[in-house]
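Follow-up to my earlier ticket, as requested here are the two runs.
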Amino acid sequence: MYNKINSNIIQELETITDAKNIITEKDKMEDYSHDETVLPHLKHYPELVVKPCTSKEISEILKIANKYNVPLLAKGGGTGLAGGSIPIFGGIVISLEKMNKFLELDEENLMATMEAGFTLRELKEKLKEKNMFFPPHPGEESATAGGIVCTNAGGARAVKYGTVRNFVRAIEAVLPDGHIVNLGGKLLKDSSGYNLLHLMIGSEGTLGIITKATFSVMPLPEASLTLIIPFDNVSKALKSVPEILCKGIVPLSVEFISSKLINMSKDYLKKTWPVKTGEVYLLIILEGEDMEEVEKSSLKISDICMKNEALDVFVAEEREKQEEILEIRSMVYEALKSITIEALDIVLPRNQIEPHLKRVEEIEIEADMWLPTFGHAADGNLHTHMSKVNLKGEIIPDWEEKYEKIRRIIHDDATGRGGKISGEHGIGIVKKEYMNIFTDSTLLKLMKEIKRSFDPNNILNPGKIFDL
């Protein structure tokens, strides 16, 4: 279907960028063969890696890929969880690691512009200097600007601010044929024809390579509190969430997680967790203009939770303690990684979280497979970690076969409740089979026609989201 890399292609690439920016040795391509997806059979090595320094260089590389019919994809921080940046057909990987400059902080318009390889961690530090922040902030700080736009990344703050899509104002992208386009602008409103900017956001690198991004940013809130509220079961914890939201309180984030998972994470990090009681925690972060406002919301939340049989309410005021709590929560995936097959990314209507969790608990017992689940209680995004171990903690001999069956049962239950298969990780290759099962055929046909319109030769990140 595609052609292999040959000496002519390498010679033409060397006329575009310095030879030192081209990698052809397989032993130097390990970092480009995978993302954070733990399924080992998904690893694929590219035939060649190129590290361009400009959008113009990327444009010329794409022209060569089209000319020789060679598959190509762009790679950022490699933090994806759906196999979206794995070169399953070999070909060329364009690494954006050299396109990592911060370009502008427009304080009057409250917008920040950077190259696609600039990381979230760097953005956080850059904005902090000016007492500003990027509200969505997906959890993995080594993710890059281009990557979070490609996946429309979410994170815990989506309940208050929405996903990355809500903050992308403009992008520069290179289309599959090599044309460089600028979409959007320093604008808060735009009704000028089809919104191609929003079409590109979440397209997982299948429609174009994002080279620059402009994000809306905001002044850093003056005050914040983190609440840890223990309950003796998840039902009582989740009952409090709609009551909090219906009181007009909009926390920065509302998460639920079991004490067992928190203990695994704190042990992994060798840190301490300030709460000892309870089986399940609500982890709620509040922010506001002043401490009086935040404390008022905190008291209202405490009252609601105590009425719903919370065991206690722990309040962290110091930034250091809040950051330590967040770090322990954020590292749960790393603590589970050695036994995790896949972290599911189901999103549901909020009132369907509890019945879905009950079904997952039933499946866990029926299959004798540990299925630890936690997530964003206020936006309906759940992460069931399908593990290789049974309920006694022993490795399941036939875990690969069992995984495929159980995964389908869980997704069937979620979609039957009005849910979807990805809230923030994307489809990539991991969830591709479900696009045919759970997507309306008319809509899937439209998506494929859009892909063909942008990329008639299907060279750009082929085999992701769906097959043509």
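Run two:
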Amino acid sequence: MNDWARKIREGDVRALARAATAVENRDPQAAELLRELAPHAGHALVVGITGPPGAGKSTLVDAMALALRKQGKTLAILAVDPSSRITGGAILGDRIRMQQHHADAGIFIRSMATRGSLGGLARATADLARLMDCAGRDYVLIETVGVGQDEVEIAGLAQVTVVVLVPGMGDDVQAIKAGIMEIADVFAINKADQPGADRVEHELQAMLSLAHGHVPAIVRTVATDGTGIDNLLAAVERPVTQRSAGEIRGGPTIDHLGIAVPALDDAIGFYETLGLAVGQRERVASEKVDVAMLPAGDSRIELLQPSGPDSPIAKFLEKRGPGLHHIALRVPDLNAAVASLKAAGARLLNEPRQGAGGHTYVFVHPASAGGVLLELIQGESH
């Protein structure tokens, strides 16, 4: 790892700030830096905060940051501001509102100009979010510029999208439902102490009664005094937990397929031709294996290369050759699943422990799982 990347991983805020500037300016060194840091991606929860102007998004983000820091979490705030017509830079309104955090190294705030980009995001926002993730931040909060119903690009970048509404804006839901209303994982009714909050919630509930599948949560907040912020954070975390634990489908879901390969780079090249990309790459010393994770929809392909001749993957390759090594299922409660399997007499190969990507897992012997090695993963850790 080069010195710049190492400083970022060690928490050097100045190195991170220089990297953020390089990313925004499309410096070639930034692209190389992101490639160097790529194996450390996948830790942060990326949350998009969007909604019409005047909804109090900046104040809400500020309140969320305070609550997260009380929990001991670190975060980055990417505030996409309107561009100055004179300089082309960000107007920096969000930094003015968040000055109380200037001495807190656990909060990194970056104002970004849209620089003519449509959809509420700056062109470099995705790369900056990835940089903050690689730097080890627990959360990345992205506040969009607030342009209204065209502001939907955030849904493609954030894992969870919060749409902020306020009472007293006329026909609140009808005014913007054609665009950002459809991308919400969570609705935050901010300034809920003002008249009209009940009406906004009733309109949302009426609209959501027609929805299929996952129904977004509705949370009332008063960002200026912190009311409802803990409930909002719980709602933000819930969609990710649901996808991880399989709650949407009512049970376990496939997390990944583990494939044993003799050479990671060769295998990665093949899957890249299919349009997949490596989301995470690491060495798991306890398993003596090098791992590359390639997201594929809601699941992943896990490529496994032995890191030594005594690796279980090396023995698998010697005996069977390259191929499917195991199937991994996400389960809502791993401990409960383990207890049920033990009671049923299933043969487990290990007690719950931490593996690639930081998740907790257990392997079930093929003799108990229909001839295939089965991995069970604690869903909420995915």
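The only thing I checked on run two: The radius of gyration is 23 Å. Let me know what else you need.
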